Amino acid sequence: MTAEAPRRMAPSALTARRRRGIHAGQTRTAWLLTLPFLLVFAAFFTVPLVYSAYLSLFTSQLVGGEVFSGLDNYTRALHDPNFWDGLRRVALFLCVQMPIMLAASVFIALALDSRRVRGSKVVRMLIFVPYAVPSVVATLMWGYLYGKDFGLVTQLFHAVGLDAPNLLAPGKILGSTMNIVCWEFIGYNMIVLYAALRSVPDDLYEAAEIDGAGQWRIAWSIKLPALRPALLLTIIFSIIGSFQLFNEPNLLFNIAPNAIGSDFTPNLYAYNLAFRNQENNYAAAIAFLLGFVIMIVSFVVQGIINRKERRA
Amino acid sequence: MTIALALTACSPSGGGGSGAKSSKPVTQAEIDKAMNTPTSLTFWSWVPDIQDEIDLFEKKYPKIKVNLVNQGDANAQYVKLRAAVKAGKGVPDVAQIGYDYLPSFTQTKSLLDLTPYGADKVASEFVPGVWSQVTQNGSIWAVPQDSGPMGTLYRTDIFGKAGVSAPTTWGEFATAAQAVKKKTGAYITNIPGNDMPQTLGFFSQAGARPFGYDGKETVSIDVDNATTQRVVGYWQDLIQKDLVATDPDFTDAWYQGLSRGKYATWLTAAWGPTFLAGSAKNTSGKWRAAVLPQWKAGENVAANWGGSSDAVMAATSHPIQAYELAKFINSDPSSTIKLANEQSLYPTTTATLSNPEFTDAKSDFYGGQQVNKFFAGVSKTVPQNQKYVPFQDYVNSSYNDTLGKAIAEHGDLKSALSAWQKKLVSYAEQQGFSVK
């Protein structure tokens, strides 16, 4: 609120003061109501963030203890091939997995919304169920299915007389992980997109039908544009999720320890640095750099999509 | 990371202090007084059902209450223990620690030297080779809990079909591998790419001393030498001829392999027999135990794989009671025989190793063989050359990324060994150690 406001709104000083009084009270209540959130936000977000930023400026050694080292950890990270390998791996993951997952989600959402699918409620539930399964359970389950000698996939291949691929081999494990993540998140994204479709007013469809548009035309010209904001949301979520990939590879490590190195993804690398190599400070620097990369990629993607929207 | 630290800091550690830490020997009167003072101890251990042994302790010392915390497995416990030590909060009084990880914790001064509390007096009760694992520079850092003298567990039915008997030398082992593969389709054994301690056992058997540590700032790292090259060269040959499997161990595929006859042997430690009997029940009666194949005919050299101890943390405020707990669990005859027979921890005291209740047990799974007695004999032939560095976590993870990876991918083991050496040296230097 600007300083001019009271003058314009209130003719007398008295009313002005009373009005300010109401505003102050409202502000107090607003702060009070947001306080629980702010406290939790500070305790679990701001404080750890500041603390890790602080940590990342030190170097601790098993011999010699902790010394201030400025930006050394960041310089080291920028020259660390393990960090870049992990980053490349998750970037590849993002470029392959996200389009597949989102295309499937869009297709299913459109199919359910077309009301041509019988028992659509049951279908919706079934597709959403994997999201309700904790990723730990999902990964363990897929791990068993992938098993090299006696897993279900291998047995199916053998049943039809084919040589089974080793889905836990170093060259295939990234693909196997993509499959798990797709399985987990198609349902979730489908629900987000489906909800966006439901909010399209019915008169738009009626108008389109009167104009003689078929289902495909309606999907293309009405539904897809309506999906854009929701799609942007799911894309940003997927970018963040892909770069932070951790649970699945960390669990697959127990099944395929040599296919998943300690630096398989940047997050896994930071974790192993902190808890296995006892390099907390360096891990903090890696985590910060990763956060930075995610921010840049998210902004760039958002920029591209928004520009397209403006043009459209 | 910070959240993890905060969480581990939540577990309570004993009440008020009784009995200060001392460098001069504590007297029997002090011990008696401490053991009669109501005290609550926290004990971290990953041994299943170790509560049974704690019950025995609490029965003998009714004033002492022990809170057992199981952090899952060894690796999970080390991570949490280190975090607690670093936070200075929530450190247990007594913690189970593998022999290989003891230097990691003495390096950070996290353990209590047990000499003043009388640990030197129980030394004679333990197998000398095992006792040497808990001492460094005249200090005693823990009480041995279990050990792992290595031997061969083999399938009589597969060997019978292949027409071979248990190989006594590595040369015979390689020959037998061909016969086994050709006649039965099985692999003579599995060499996992994720089990550094087993590989270190093979190195030790061949006479290598890959690691050394002076207890201060100097480590020696020698994982790439003529001896280790010879050992990996041997396995390289078998791997390339597809005569041994290279599945990661302790995974579902590996368990299935053991119970479905994919491997004819398991080169394992004395804790292996009971473990195998539990995980491959359907193969009961088909297994026997024999000594490891030898590099030279006529020799009898074993190795050690695994084993752990109970250490008293330096942060404890009840050092006397904590030491008495560690001592009782691992040296009281009623407790050690329970550990041996019920939790299948391979004994470390000479008394239990010769106790008929332990040695005379005949296992149907091994066709009535007295496997315990057999391994009691093996434990005398373990060379005392296994030392560790204070960053065993890194040794382990870098093994998986280099030599282990080469094993799993059937790559070049010898150059992977050199890569491992290089990684270890550069990490040690980065951590401020001088490397010999």
Mean pLDDT of chain B: 91
Unreliable stretches covering 5 or more consecutive residues of chain A: 1-11
Give the oligomeric state: heterodimer
Number of strands of chain B: 12
Q: Tell the overall outline of chain A.
A: globular
Distance between the termini of chain B: 34 Å
Give the low-confidence spans of chain B. 1-20
Please report the number of helical segments of chain A.
13
Helical content of chain B (DSSP H or I, runs of 4+):
40-55%
Q: What is the C-alpha radius of gyration of chain B, as a whole number of Å?
A: 22 Å
Helix percent band of chain A: over 70%
Strand percent estimate of chain B: 5-15%
Give the N-terminus to C-terminus distance of chain A in angstroms.
36 Å
Which strand-content bin applies to the residues of chain A?
A: under 5%
Strand order of the largest sheet of chain A: 1-2
Q: What class, by secondary structure content of chain A?
A: mainly alpha
> What is the count of DSSP helices of chain B, taking H or I runs of 4+ residues?
21
Global structural class of chain B:
alpha/beta
Mean pLDDT of chain A: 88
Counted beta strands of chain A: 2
Keywords:
heterodimer; A: mainly alpha; two-stranded antiparallel ribbon; 13 helices; 76% helix; globular; disordered N terminus; B: 7-stranded mixed β-sheet; 3-stranded mixed β-sheet
List strands and helices in order, with pairings.
The complex is a heterodimer of chains A (312) and B (436).
Chain A: H1 4-9, H2 13-55, E1 58-61, E2 65-68, H3 72-78, H4 81-113, H5 120-132, H6 135-146, H7 152-159, H8 173-198, H9 202-210, H10 215-243, H11 247-255, H12 266-275, H13 280-311
Helix pairs in contact in A: 3-13, 4-8, 4-10, 5-8, 6-8, 6-11, 8-10, 10-13, 12-13
Chain B: H1 2-8, H2 28-35, E1 39-44, H3 51-60, E2 64-69, H4 74-87, E3 94-98, H5 102-107, H6 119-122, H7 128-131, E4 135-136, E5 139-140, E6 143-155, H8 156-162, H9 170-184, H10 196-205, E7 211-213, E8 218-221, H11 226-240, H12 252-259, E9 265-269, H13 272-279, E10 287-290, E11 304-312, H14 319-331, H15 333-341, H16 350-353, H17 356-359, H18 371-378, H19 392-401, H20 403-408, H21 413-430, E12 434-435
Parallel strand pairs in B: 1-2, 1-3, 8-12
Antiparallel strand pairs in B: 3-11, 4-5, 6-9, 6-10, 6-11, 7-8
Helix pairs in contact in B: 1-4, 3-15, 8-9, 14-15, 19-21
